[in-house]
């Protein structure tokens, strides 16, 4: 279940209540008259089945509540209510399979912004990857995969391409285009310092057999990237968010960036080039698979007749 809050201008409250009351996928409808201050108006609260949320939000957007008032959604961890159970049973489909498009746009938009936190995580992930490479530690490489935040912008690009939200595509592309070079630059400085102090040498890199998969680009690199992108988008468009951890540790985006830096410092240009190729293949593969999954899910929603116009906000 999801909890929906809508701030309504007084002249639209009755229409909003009528929409919510008429839908079988709602429960616990509450109206607070005149409590909203900014913007002024009424507050309407209701619990909705996840599989009905997109349709309900679309109907409220046709009343322009997203521009004259406001609509928010939040997940309900536990709902002990026969009315809620009836709403979930009456709503078509299954909650785990439902796509709440506005939630997806908001989530990918938030996770694709270039900010200090995003850059810090990406930089730390690249540094971890470099340490894993010079210490021949596959465990550390996996740690770098988990820490890396790059799937957020990649998912945002896929969402933007499918929904023609070019603002998302631009925002995510900027995050990747600036974030990776900055993270690699910091890793370059740390690697140069490590080499100067004798922490590792070219012989160390040549002996790293356990982490050779990082730069070993090939057909399976693309296959893994496609599978990871598909799994990641399925996770983001459903209630199975825990599956994202598996996506993070299945692709070698950040480790490839770290390996390219270490190989460049040690002037192993062949491995540097292969690592960069691995990075590009993974980025492209993830976006392609995520976009295909999103298109299939949207086509299924259209076939079911439940697609609603998406707000640009």
Automatic annotation (TrEMBL):
Look up the domain of life of the source.
Answer: Bacteria
InterPro entries (alphabetical): DUF389
Q: Which UniProt keywords apply?
A: Membrane, Transmembrane, Transmembrane helix
Q: What Pfam families does the entry give?
A: DUF389
Which residue spans traverse the membrane?
116-135, 141-162, 174-193, 213-235, 242-267, 273-296
The protein's name in its UniProt record? Uncharacterized hydrophobic domain-containing protein
């Amino acid at each position: 279940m999801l909890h929906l809050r809508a701030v309504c201008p007084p002249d639209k409250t009755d229409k909003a209540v009528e929409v919510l009351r008429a839908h079988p996928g709602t429960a616990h409808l509450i109206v607070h008259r005149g409590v909203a201050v900014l913007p002024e108006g009424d507050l309407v609260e209701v619990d909705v089945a996840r599989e009905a949320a997109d349709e309900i939000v679309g109907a409220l957007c046709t009343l322009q509540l997203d521009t004259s008032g406001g609509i928010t959604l939040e997940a309900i961890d536990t709902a002990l209510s026969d009315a809620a159970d009836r709403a979930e049973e009456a709503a078509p489909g299954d909650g785990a399979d439902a796509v709440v498009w506005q939630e997806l746009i908001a989530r990918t938009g938030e996770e694709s912004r270039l900010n200090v936190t995003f850059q810090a995580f990406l930089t730390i992930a690249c540094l971890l990857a470099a340490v894993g490479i010079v210490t021949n530690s596959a465990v550390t490489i996996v740690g770098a995969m988990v820490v890396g935040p790059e799937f957020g912008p990649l998912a945002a690009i896929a969402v933007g391409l499918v929904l023609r939200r070019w603002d998302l595509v631009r925002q995510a592309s900027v995050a990747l285009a600036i974030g990776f070079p900055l993270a690699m630059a910091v890793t370059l400085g740390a690697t140069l310092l490590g080499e100067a102090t004798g922490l590792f040498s070219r012989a160390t890199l040549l002996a790293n057999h356990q982490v050779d998969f990082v730069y070993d680009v090939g057909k399976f690199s693309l296959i893994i990237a496609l599978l990871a992108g598909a799994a990641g988008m399925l996770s983001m468009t459903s209630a199975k968010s825990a599956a994202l951890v598996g996506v993070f540790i299945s692709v070698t985006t950040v480790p490839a960036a770290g390996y390219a830096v270490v190989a460049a410092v040690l002037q192993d240009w062949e491995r540097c080039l292969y690592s960069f190729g691995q990075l590009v293949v993974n980025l492209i593969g993830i976006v392609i698979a995520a976009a295909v999954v999103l298109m299939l899910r949207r086509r299924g929603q259209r076939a079911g007749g439940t697609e609603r116009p998406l707000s640009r906000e």
